[in-house]
Amino acid sequence: MLxxxxxxxxxxxVIAPLTVLLIWALxxxxxxxxxxxxxxxxxxxSTLISLCTSGQMAEDLSISMLRVLRGFGLGAVCGIIIGSxxxxxxxxxxxxxxxxxxxxxxxxxxxxxxxxxxLGIGExxxxxxxxxxxxxxxxxNTIHGIQSTDPKLLEVAYILKKSKWETITSVYLxxxxxxxxxxxxxxxxxxxxxxxxAEMIAASSGIGYMISYARELAQPAKxxxxxxxxxxxxxxxxxxxxxxxxxxxxxSYVDEK
Length: 257
What we know:
Layout: H1 2-29, H2 41-54, H3 56-88, H4 90-103, H5 111-119, H6 123-147, H7 151-159, H8 164-201, H9 207-216, H10 220-248
Helix pairs in contact: 2-10, 3-4, 3-6, 3-8, 3-9, 5-6, 6-8, 8-9, 8-10, 9-10
């Protein structure tokens, strides 16, 4: 029964992508779609295989992933630290809240020209853009997780005369961790988006640069191959973080049968 349910869930997950792929293939084979605008799936697949076998895709992807890890790591650490400060301290929340409200709506790519002026076109500017992209999600979810702690649990901790540190570790932390992990997942997704955007604007390597250069050379199959890899990597990263969350926070999930 469980295996059948998993198979059904898998079917639901792949039916939409398969439908789009089928329509795409039919349109290309019947000549309804111009190859110069949207190449056939077969052409995109052969281009993707060629990029992988030549090593170009692995090289560009490794460069982009290294940039993501640097920027996301800094953004996640700072987001958790500052988010914890704002979550626990009403004063800090009031002082920093207005600044967060002003800066958070600014699109990540709007920071690129400024960071290039400040930091040049090297790795520092790209790391800064990724940092900004991942920082907000982690910050806001950390604040939400701390402030959403059940007041009844805090009352119990007070009645039991728990110390401040014991209250943080035994009440606030377990309550906030699910939101923090959600922020990490969203932050990683934003970081991956930001690195591609930054590489398209100012880079000589990476998968974003590969897509931008293919556009200049009018190679749509290569562009679509890059887009597919970006989507696949984004999905893989999200699933890894989701599985990690389920392993580390088993107590926060209710088994669905």
